[in-house]
Design goal:
By secondary structure, the protein is an alpha+beta fold. The chain contains 22 helices and 21 strands. Strands 1, 2, 3, 4, 5, 6, 7, 8 and 9 form a nine-stranded mixed sheet that branches. Strands 15-14-13-12-21 form a five-stranded mixed sheet, with no helix packed on it. The chain has a five-stranded mixed sheet with strand order 16-17-18-19-20. Helix 13 runs parallel beside helix 17 and helix 17 packs antiparallel against helix 18.
């Protein structure tokens, strides 16, 4: 009876399916008009069957309507980002966040509203990432500031390596499709608005809180850690700090999430212990008010919104004295977020947060009751371990697919460090609250500094343990979905055998093995050429079945290659190229890797595919010979104007610039 106990499951699944279908299908307005009318007629006709005990016709109509809504919402979101004309123009809009300092520039997220060009003033939507040449005035900009910028927007591209993070899709799902390079002369105007949006005020408050930490003596790496754990500002973090938390399996404490909301709400509830009976409603309202204020200050991230909405639904049910299903409350909060921004279902934080909390609600209590301790301390340790194991089980497939790694010491590090981080969160919230009282805030800030230092030290120790992470493991999206279902069913069977037959988890396991086998057969029967879009080096791969022969003039840790090989479980064989040109014969195709190209070389080698790398030189006399099937310009080749013009003259269809067009991939 899940449709009665958890109605948002019935709503959410087809809604998400409709959104996912939008990745492969972008219909026009006529399709939505005709389909919408047909669905309305179908829904009206389904009411004729209401006299029966069940109404499957209405169920089908409702499911199709949710699919339609998901597709419509996602398509509308994609179309809301304007396609900008190429060329220089003036753009007006406002900043959505503080400028982020980079090595040679300031990164600014610029929400555009108007384009002033040859065609006059045009209304536009979306955002542009501005990389503005470093200057002192940029650091004083605030979220919500109005700007007029002269620039030539360029489309954001992905590197296109197999199974690599799709940066273009990631940015587009956040409303950003373009970037540009600017300097101080391109900033035509900068004005302070009369009224800032609430979200911009919240970001300014967040930065003010960080300044409070700084004024109370917290500096350097500890300030970066406090800012990340308490208010979700991760721009100050050092890359080594992030890696330590990832290896220790506790990166979630640095991403403000439901954990922070739970700790804060419990702390407030304890402080308001005297509000009982009739005053309990004020206790709940005060907690909700502070929790929503915390959500705004931390930037309204999906994980915090999920926890805040869920807590609000649960408390609303308690106030109304109506039983509330935990899973339904979680899915209700997800429904609200999806309606606001449909593409949120593709966010890694959203998926990890919801999968962890759903597993905890479903399985934590059953696992906890398997072992009971009478003493308080062992019981608290067991509670923390049980939550960690269940949450890790829920996020395991996503962790492997997204990050290609698995932290092995996650139970130990979570038992020790998560309680410590709870104290960091509480003391971090107390510092700004007691800031006007100098001696008290200084005392609390000193405690916060010590707790942060201890957290960082223990994290470094956990990350440096032998085999702290299992690296270079990966799965595809289909395998991730099937593995998630398999783990869920096996966990349900292991903790409560009476509720489910063993046939279900075994069937899911069989599907997982079958999917892996089919993929393995497909890979073994195919071959492909890959020219990776790498940074600072060139790598060419020829995959023959499960063997990936890699050709490069350097031996190093190839991140792009490792991701590809670990996902498909390929065996990598490295072939070092000592001199150029280098010819590879595969089947009936000759592949030439070279640093120069002329008529004589083409006549002598007769290659079907040419891969240029390094400081490449192309002679003009190649225009008089037959052009190869494909001319690939490697990622390490300087794309000078002369080279670009020459290869375009040869044959634009056969030329592939890896740095611009993404990694080259073809079936051999």
């Amino acid at each position: 009876m899940l449709h009665k106990e958890i109605p948002f499951l019935r709503i959410g699944l087809p809604l998400c399916a409709g959104i996912v279908s939008g990745l492969y299908f972008t219909p026009g307005n006529l399709f939505f008009l005709i389909t919408g009318i047909a669905l309305i007629l179908f829904l009206c006709a389904s009411f004729y069957y209401n006299r029966s005990l069940t109404n499957p016709v209405y169920g089908m109509a409702f499911t199709l309507a949710m699919l339609y809504c998901g597709l419509f919402l996602y398509t509308a979101e994609k179309k809301s980002i304007s396609v900008l004309e190429s060329g220089e123009a003036l753009y007006t809009g406002y900043l959505t966040d503080f400028p982020e300092e980079k090595e040679n520039s300031y990164l600014m997220n610029f929400r555009i509203e108007h384009r002033i060009g040859n065609k006059g003033d045009q209304r536009v939507k979306g955002s542009i990432v501005l990389y503005n040449k470093k200057s002192s005035f940029c650091s004083s900009y605030l979220p919500g500031d109005l700007m007029m910028v002269r620039c030539s927007p360029l489309e954001i591209t992905s590197r296109g390596n197999p199974y690599e993070f799709d940066y273009r899709f990631y940015m587009e799902s956040r409303g950003t499709r373009y970037y540009t390079l600017t300097d101080s002369s391109d900033m035509y105007s900068h004005t302070i608005p009369l009224h800032r949006k609430l979200i911009h005020r919240a970001l300014i408050i967040r930065e003010t809180i960080i300044d409070m930490f700084r004024e109370r003596g917290i500096e350097g790496d500890r300030l970066a850690l406090v800012a990340a754990i308490t208010v979700g500002q991760k721009n100050l973090l050092d890359p080594d700090q992030k890696q330590n938390f990832i290896k220790a399996g506790i990166m979630h404490i640095m991403a403000v999430s439901g954990l922070h909301a739970v700790i804060l709400s419990l702390f407030i509830f304890k402080l308001l212990f005297f509000m009982k009976g009739r005053l309990n409603i004020f206790r709940v309202l005060i907690t909700l008010l502070i929790l929503w204020a915390f959500a705004f200050v931390t930037g309204l991230t999906p994980s915090v919104l999920r926890a805040t909405l869920m807590f609000s639904f649960l408390q609303a049910g308690n106030i109304l004295k109506r039983p509330v299903n935990g899973i339904n409350s979680v899915l209700a909060s997800a429904f609200v977020l999806i309606m606001i921004r449909p593409s949120v279902i593709f966010d890694a934080g959203f998926l990890l947060s919801y999968s962890a909390v759903i597993y905890i609600i479903c399985f934590y209590r059953d696992l906890y009751l398997k072992i009971l301790f009478r003493q308080r301390l062992p019981d608290l340790i067991w509670q923390s371990a049980a939550v960690t194991v269940i949450a890790q089980a829920g996020t395991l497939p996503l962790t492997i697919m997204l990050f290609n790694r698995f932290p092995t010491w996650f139970i130990l590090s979570n038992i020790v460090i998560v309680p410590l981080s709870s104290l960091v969160i509480i003391t971090g919230c107390l510092v700004p609250l007691t800031f006007p009282v100098h001696f008290l805030s200084m005392f609390i800030a000193r405690i916060l500094d010590i707790l942060t230092g201890l957290t960082e030290l223990l994290t470094e120790k956990a990350a440096s343990l032998p085999l702290s992470t299992i690296e270079n493991i990966g799965i595809t999206s289909i395998e991730c979905i099937i593995l998630t279902v398999t783990i869920f069913l096996f966990t349900q069977f292991a903790l409560n055998r009476k509720s489910i037959s063993v046939i279900y988890p075994l069937t899911a396991l069989l599907c997982l093995v079958l999917a892996d086998t089919l993929r393995d057969i497909q890979i073994r029967r195919s071959s492909e050429l890959i020219v990776y879009n790498s940074i600072g080096y060139s790598a060419t791969g020829v995959r023959t079945g499960k063997i990936l022969n890699l050709y490069s003039d350097t031996i190093m840790n190839w991140q792009e290659v490792n991701r590809h090989a670990s996902t498909l479980r390929l065996k990598v064989k490295t072939n070092v190229i000592n001199e150029y040109p280098y010819k590879i014969r595969y089947g009936d195709k000759d592949i030439l890797i070279t640093k120069y190209l002329n008529k004589s070389l083409l006549i002598n080698t007769l290659p079907e595919i040419v891969i240029l790398r390094g400081e490449s030189v192309i002679s003009h006399d190649i225009q008089s010979v037959e052009v190869p099937e494909a001319l690939i310009i490697g990622a390490d080749v300087r794309q000078s104007y002369r080279l670009s013009r020459l290869v375009r003259i040869i044959s634009s269809d056969s030329v592939h610039f890896v740095r611009k067009d993404g990694a080259y991939n073809c079936i051999l």
